[in-house]
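2024-03-11 09:14:02 DEBUG pipeline.ingest accepted 1 chain
2024-03-11 09:14:02 DEBUG pipeline.ingest length=273
2024-03-11 09:14:03 DEBUG pipeline.predict start
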Amino acid sequence: MDAIIAQLQSLALTSALPYLLKAVGALVLWFVGRTVINGFRRVLNLALQKRQLDATLIRYIESLFAGSLTLLLLLGILGMMGVETTSFAALLAAAGIAIGTAWSGLLSNFAAGVFLLVLRPFRVGDEISAAGVTGVVQEIGLFATTLDTSGNLRISVGNNRLFGDNIINFTHHPHRKIVVNLPLLYGGDLRLQMRALLEMVSTQPGVLQQPAPAIEVAEFTALGPVLGIGVHCKPTQATAVHAAVAGAAADFLVASGYSVAVDTARQLTAKVG
C-alpha cells in the first residue's frame, strides 16, 4: 500500500502539478490580459472622443479592437497550455471560410454597416426614410440599423438594404419645408385673401421667418384655384407645424366665407420637402 501511495504522489508531482500550475497561470494571464485590454479600450475611447467622432462609430471601433485583442489573448493562453495554436489557427480560418460562405448575407450587412459609418449618410437621432421604413435612427449596429417610427414602433433594417436603397434624410439641414395645399372655389379677391392667409400662417408656433413663409397659386382647376402654403420649420417640429398650418388654413376658410366643394372630396393635403 505504501508503494502505491508513493507512486501516486510521484505521478501527481510529475504530471498533475504542472497542469495545475499551467491552469493557474492561464487564469492569471486571462485576468491580467482582460484588465490590460479594458485599459487600452478606455484610452482608445478618450482618444476618439477628443477627435469628436460619432458615438456609434466609437462603439463600433471599440468592439473591433477589444474583440481582436481578446482573440489574440485566447490564442496565447492556449499556447501556454500546450495546445498547438498553428493547427487551431488553420481550423479557425477554415471555419471562417465555411461561415462566410453560409452567412454571405450577414457579411454583406456587416460591410454595408462599415460604409454607413464611414460615408455618414445619416447619424443617430436623424429622421430618415429608406428601405420602405421612415423613422428616427436609434442605433447603427454591426449588421442592422434600428429605427423608431412615428407610431412608436421599433424596426431593425439590414444595413445592406439601407445602403442599397435611396436614403432620404429629413433632419440633415437646419430647416425643413412644408407645403399645405388649399383648394378653393372661384369668387372673391384672391390676392387679398392670400395676404390675409399669409399673415395668419406666419404667426403659427414653430413657423420660421427666415426663410419667409410664402403662398402661391399651385394650379387652377374647374372649380377653383389651389393655393400652396409653404413654410419652413425645424426638422423636429415638422409634424406639429404641419398641424398648426392646416388648422390655420381651416380657420381662414371659415372666417373668409370660402368653402371646399363636397363632391370633389378634396381636403387639406400636405407635402413635406
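2024-03-11 09:14:41 DEBUG pipeline.report The beta strands are 127-130, 133-140, 144-148, 154-158, 168-169, 176-183, 214-220, 225-233, 269-272.
2024-03-11 09:14:41 DEBUG pipeline.predict end
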